[in-house]
Amino acid sequence: LHLTQSAIARIAHRAACEQERDSVLVATWPAAALAGWLAGSENRIQQCVCEKLLAANMTGEQLLCLCKGDVSKLGLGALGMEVWLLSVVKKVRNSHFAAL
To answer: What pLDDT score was predicted for residue 22?
Structure first.
């Protein structure tokens, strides 16, 4: 399934809340926007993890495909945030695809 950014934006417009909207729009975000969102109070991802994702140029679309092996390759397991990050990714992924 490949959706244009405008199609994703139309789907996000129908979201019931900001969290749902962000879960849909995340696929369109560049690395800087994603890192800022993950550092936000609701996600509670540590700044050092967000900086590593930003340095790796991790986009929102890539985040939706992130798995445990990717987290290890990025060196995030050593930061103690692997489980938390993967749970955030799972929640975002589920919301994203449910909205589509």
So the answer is: 85
Measured CA to CA, the distance from residue 38 to residue 49 in angstroms comes to 9
Q: Which two tokens stand for residue 83?
A: 């489980």
CA-to-CA dists, residue 24 to 49, 55, 72, angstroms: 22, 23, 26
Q: Terminus-to-terminus CA distance in the chain, angstroms? A: 10
CA distance 82 to 100: 27
Q: For residues 27-51, give the mean pLDDT.
A: 87
| pLDDT given for residue 1 in this prediction | 55
41 sits in which H/E element: none
Please choose, from the candidates 56, 92, 61, 98, the residue with its C-alpha nearest in 3D space to the C-alpha of residue 76: 56
Sequence-ordered list of residues with C-beta below 8 angstroms from that of 40, at least 6 positions apart, any chain = none
Phi and psi at 16, nearest 5°, equal -80, -25
| Two tokens, residue 12 | 């996000």
